[in-house]
Design a protein that fits this description.
single chain; alpha/beta; Pectate Lyase C-like; nine-stranded parallel beta sheet; 15% helix; globular; calcium; signal; metal-binding; Pectin_lyas_fold; Pec_lyase
Length: 396
Amino acid sequence: MAASKMLLATTYIVFLTSLAPPCLAMLNFTLPPHHPNPDLVARDVQRRVNESFSMRRQMVELNQRDHTCTTGNPIDDCWSCDPNWHLDRQRLADCGIGFGQYALGGKGGQIYVVTDSSDHDAVNPKPGTLRHAVIQTEPLWIIFSANMLIRLKQELIFNSYKTVDGRGANVHIIGGGCITLQYISNVIIHNVHIHHCVQSGETNVRSSPTHFGYRSKSDGDGISIFGSRDVWVDHCTLSRCTDGLIDVVVGSTGISITNNYFSHHNEVMLLGHSDDFLPDSAMQVTIAFNHFGEKLVQRMPRCRRGYIHVVNNDFTQWEMYAIGGSGNPTINSQGNRYVAPFDGNAKEVTKRVESEDQDWKEWNWRSEGDIMLNGAFFIASGGGVEVKYEKAYNDV
């Protein structure tokens, strides 16, 4: 983690631990809002997935594929079946599932068309550029006039209530940063390619029309979600960044990461700042319909605290492990396909990171309806549940 982020988070931890109990009780009201019953959200996701699959099955049996559009994916069923989707782009905001389903993005705002792929000045961005669009204060639905390669000079710092909608264009975002969501809310990032993100910083960067400030060196994440809520990342590809592809840290919650393709990376996704950072206990993240593809090593995701719903993903490659954690996160794995590597020492889907057996046996990690292939196995744990191996079936 970059020095500026570490200092800020550490200061917050020191502040928390220095307060007397009555003050801490008052401070609890300012901690990140979260759903009081996350299992209800998980069941709603499964209900919507099952309905979509059921409808698709019925249409196939009735040979009505030419008369209706059902993909088996409730997100895509919601908007992509309409051949005139481009006439009502903002309908997408009603299609989210899981904990990030309330992300409004730029719904209700004006359409902003990015016409210029340049990024010459991080303090005074040129109108028509992506940087100029994302820093505005009003809700905006941001689209692109043509295919673009946007080579960032510095972190692309968003303001709240923004949708970046790459449908209809082939948009690649690379370079310094890349995308930073810091202490904001209601962002949708859809259908863009984010890759080759590198460290940047040690200069001024604008974050709103009225504010710019000095940024220390960034991590080089693809997308950094820091102290933010109601964020949905959908149908993007992410690969080859300096640090993580997606990091969700420092009290972020209400996050959905869906329909993305991850490849060519070591530490893919980090959820949670540290084991001791208490506000991340309110973190709630849905990870659904993603493809974890070629040349991935670990952290799909790596979780600290919070409630993480991993549902209907395809894990086709890892070198060390797929899902890891520490600090007692809840991990609910449902309907995923795990294909283990040929390395006999890396068949386990799960990894308790730097944790003793007596500590993690009470953590709530469960597997339901997962398909385990090539010897993959998931070690479940939790109160009232014996530690067990979810043995492979349909094994090859």
